[in-house]
Automatic annotation (TrEMBL):
Family matches, as InterPro entries: NAD(P)-bd_dom_sf, SDR, SDR_fam
Family per similarity comment: Belongs to the short-chain dehydrogenases/reductases (SDR) family.
Protein's organism: Costertonia aggregata
Name of the featured protein: SDR family oxidoreductase
């Protein structure tokens, strides 16, 4: 299927690992150009060496100075879409959290996404086209054990995206959220380790417990997740906006999952 992405410019956050990297790789395979963002220069440089269509910007999007740097990199070029993605807050149960943890989680999960969105939107609206895709979590539909900070803050992003999608609905810019379930990423490995520590159970057993919670009885592949993400970034998705779609192997049990 031709997704009509050849030579189109995209911004991808969290581009050096996990779901972000999988999305970047599929965009490149479709002939797109990508500005890759991550915090580790060595990993970004290694990624850039794999394809000349990749540009890199090293830093932390939660910092205003770095956001300005990203905007300078885009310059006067037309940005077709952006994958708004980064790691989440640390795993912990409610009673282990402090107010400082909540303040930091707001900065990590919510604040910078609003800042980036509001920086990118004006030019997209002026051009009459854009695709904004937020990578959140299955916790937008169903809480994940020992991830209270993520469970709560990602719902704030959901409310923001839904409201904004209604306000700019006729602009040609769409905004959607993908909520990954359990995929084979470093983030999941960290969650397995935390649950193993809390419960005193080997990580192998924890991993099986997680996979058994899904209808398909397995942990997802990042490249499968990316295939849907790239379609949502394409012109073919023009009639989908303001949606939160879970990619979870049937983890969410509710009918609205």
């Amino acid at each position: 299927m031709n997704l009509y992405l050849e030579n189109k410019l995209f911004l991808v956050g969290g581009a050096t690992s996990g779901l972000g990297k999988a999305i970047l790789e599929q965009l490149i395979s479709e002939g797109a150009k990508v500005i890759a963002i991550a915090r580790t220069q060595e990993k970004l440089e290694a990624l850039q060496r794999t394809d000349s269509a990749i540009e890199i910007v090293v830093g932390d999007l939660s910092q205003q100075a770095f956001l300005d740097k990203v905007l300078q990199k885009i310059g006067n070029r037309i940005l077709t879409g952006a994958v708004i993605n980064s790691g989440g807050p640390p795993a912990m149960p409610v009673m282990e959290t402090t107010l400082s943890d909540w303040d930091e989680a707001y900065k990590t999960v919510v604040r910078w996404k609003i800042a980036l969105t509001q920086a990118l939107l004006p030019k997209m609206i002026d051009s009459g086209y854009g695709r904004l895709l937020y990578i959140e979590s299955v916790s937008t539909k169903q809480p994940v054990e020992n991830l209270v900070l993520s469970n709560a803050m990602r719902l704030a992003v959901t409310g923001y995206v839904k409201t904004l999608s209604q306000e700019i609905g006729g602009s040609g810019v769409t905004l959607n959220i993908l909520g990954p379930g359990y995929h084979a990423t470093q983030r999941m490995e960290n969650l397995f380790a935390k649950n193993s520590e809390l419960k005193g159970i080997p990580e192998k057993e924890i991993r099986k417990t997680f996979s058994d919670q899904t209808a398909v009885k397995q942990i997802g592949k990042p490249e499968d997740f990316a295939s849907l993400a790239v379609w949502l970034l394409s012109p073919l998705s023009s009639y989908i906006t303001g949606q939160t779609l879970t990619v979870d192997g049937g983890l969410v049990k509710g009918t609205m999952g």
